[in-house]
Amino acid sequence: MKLPNFYQDQHLITLKMSMGIPQDAYGTLEASKLDYFNLTKVASSEGLELKDLSQIEQLDDNTLAIAGQRILLYIRDTTNFEPKFHFSNCQTLQKMRETNRIGRYVATNCETGNFLINYIKDNKPQACTKRLKVCRYCLDFLAWQGYSHTIWSEVKKSRAVEHFNISDFFKVYPKSFHPHNHQDSIHAPLNIYPKDWRNISSSVREKSGWICKKCDINLSAVEHHCFLHVHHKNGQKNNNNRENLEVLCIRCHSDEPNHQHLKSSKTYQDFIKIFDTT
Predict the structure, then answer these.
(1) Cα(71)–Cα(235) distance, rounded to whole angstroms?
(2) Is 80 exceeded by the pLDDT of residue 95?
(3) Per-residue pLDDT tens for 203-219?
(4) If you ran DSSP here, which 8-state letter would residue 33 be given?
(5) How do strand 57-58 and strand 64-66 relate by DSSP bridges?
(6) Confidence grade of residue 8 (pLDDT, cut at 50, 70, 90)
(7) Running DSSP on this structure, what letter comes out for residue 212?
(8) What is the CA radius of gyration of the chain?
(9) What is the largest CA-CA distance in the chain?
């Protein structure tokens, strides 16, 4: 008997929507820490207020999650500054955890970019919806689209903040841990390169000007093309959306998680001989 794929069943999706359950929210055999009402709040611009940061889980890819949902995090109450929203366990959040700073943290994965803020004046809160900017330390922590706090110019960093797109972020790091192409032996696509990967890689590198997005090394000389790679940010070789692809030189690529094996390759050694001036 062939079991139905409940992750793609239109009747189930329609039922969930009628119940106010986010389409990409799925249960597990374990009891969830949040009910579906609160999961719906996470999906809204209002967000879900948390007691403290201990409710937030840091995933292996350094993104943030709660009850099986990747989220953005920000502080709702503010006086004379606009808080930034976070998507990773950056140095700011690490310091908050270490110093046990208490605040009205809010978790949301709404993609509108609008956040509910309480401006406090004369000890009286005034609620308003505000577009907040992304945390620069988060961009640097995940090296989002090659962002580098130390290498990039201030102009380039400011441009990256202004152009950050929440929808693009959730395309690379899906909200739900149970995507529609659920990872089981029946429905999961193989995590392998597509047949036209050579053409995809060449096109992406060419559009980048043959420049590494992290260290800005120029590898446009034909004999240096082999030193420039295309990295899958979420580790899925079958996800070739442009937002998931990052052009990196072999040295920067080897510094990515689970890519240390590149350092033992002949190509890496050749790169070091040519470009390592230290």
Answers:
(1) 19
(2) yes
(3) 999 999 999 999 999 99
(4) S
(5) antiparallel
(6) low
(7) -
(8) 21
(9) 67
Model confidence over 111-161: pLDDT tens digits? Answer: 988 898 888 877 778 888 889 999 999 999 888 888 888 889 999 999 999
Helices marked H in the chain: 10-18, 36-42, 91-98, 136-141, 154-163, 166-172, 197-207, 250-254, 266-275
User: Which amino acid is located at 66 in the chain?
Assistant: I
Q: What is the mean pLDDT of the chain?
A: 81
- Report which of 114, 109, 110 is spatially closest to residue 128, judged by C-alpha positions: 114
Nearest to residue 110, comparing CAs of 91, 137, 85, 77?
85
Beta strand pairing call for 77-78 and 114-121: parallel
Give me 169's structure tokens: 């972020």
Contact 110, 45 (CB under 8 A): yes
Hey, what are 128's tokens?
A: 């308003």
Q: Rounded to whole angstroms, how far apart are CA atoms 69 and 175?
A: 5
**CA angle at 119 for the pair 117 and 120, rounded to the nearest 5°:** 140
